[in-house]
């Protein structure tokens, strides 16, 4: 059952990232078109600014699912370093509960806001503002699935508990390991020689 849920989450997160990438490309393209029409042709477009902003909102909320899945949203590495190893899972559960609380609030108020602006149209476009606001509850819904999947993967031992080490962190750790024997030898000799 857990494997099925994790496969479902993986596909859902891929979909969310694909939508986020497309929305980023759309936002950048519309912004570029806005600059062209305003400064090159001296005839600013009336709809591209609103469309670019809406695309960027969708990009941020859809990409949130992948960042939550990787553990990058609420990860404070300093806390992970001071908490004993046996309490890391408790810390991770507390972080997940905080994330879920925020995401449920986003869904609730996002739905309320989307309903409230459903009859309003975006300036320069004859499209309901609800399409922009709908990114909030939809993105938060995707993120909830990602947060739960991350915790399930950690509880079942499929993933390590704690934030993922980035490449820079791994390289720093390797570098420290290589220089530690030299530092130990210098300490035995009475410090580095000048």
Automatic annotation (TrEMBL):
GO terms for molecular function: transmembrane transporter activity. GO terms for biological process: C4-dicarboxylate transport. It is found in: Cell inner membrane. Pfam families: DctQ. The keyword DNA-binding does not apply. It comes from the Bacteria. It is a multi-pass membrane protein. Keywords: Cell inner membrane, Cell membrane, Membrane, Transmembrane, Transmembrane helix, Transport. Residues 31-156 form the Tripartite ATP-independent periplasmic transporters DctQ component domain. The chain crosses the membrane at residues 12-35, 55-75, 87-111, 131-153. GO terms for cellular component: plasma membrane. The keyword Zinc-finger does not apply. Part of the tripartite ATP-independent periplasmic (TRAP) transport system. Belongs to the TRAP transporter small permease family. The complex comprises the extracytoplasmic solute receptor protein and the two transmembrane proteins. This is TRAP transporter small permease protein. It comes from Billgrantia kenyensis.
């Amino acid at each position: 059952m857990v494997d099925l849920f994790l496969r479902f989450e993986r596909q859902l997160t891929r979909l969310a990232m694909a939508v986020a990438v497309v929305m980023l490309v759309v936002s950048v393209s519309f912004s570029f078109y806005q600059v062209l029409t305003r400064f090159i042709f001296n005839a600013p477009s009336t709809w591209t600014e609103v469309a670019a902003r809406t695309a960027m909102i969708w990009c941020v909320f859809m990409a949130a699912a992948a960042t939550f899945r990787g553990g990058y949203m609420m990860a404070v590495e300093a806390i992970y370093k001071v908490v004993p190893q046996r309490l890391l899972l408790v810390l991770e559960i507390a972080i997940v509960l905080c994330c879920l609380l925020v995401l449920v609030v986003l869904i609730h108020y996002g739905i309320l806001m989307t309903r409230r602006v459903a009859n309003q149209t975006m300036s320069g476009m004859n499209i309901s503002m609800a399409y922009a606001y709908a990114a909030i509850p939809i993105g938060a819904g995707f993120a909830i699935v990602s947060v739960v999947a991350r915790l399930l993967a950690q509880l079942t031992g499929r993933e390590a508990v704690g934030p993922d080490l980035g490449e820079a962190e791994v390289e720093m750790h390797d570098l420290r390991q290589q220089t530690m024997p030299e530092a130990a030898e210098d300490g035995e000799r009475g410090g580095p020689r000048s």
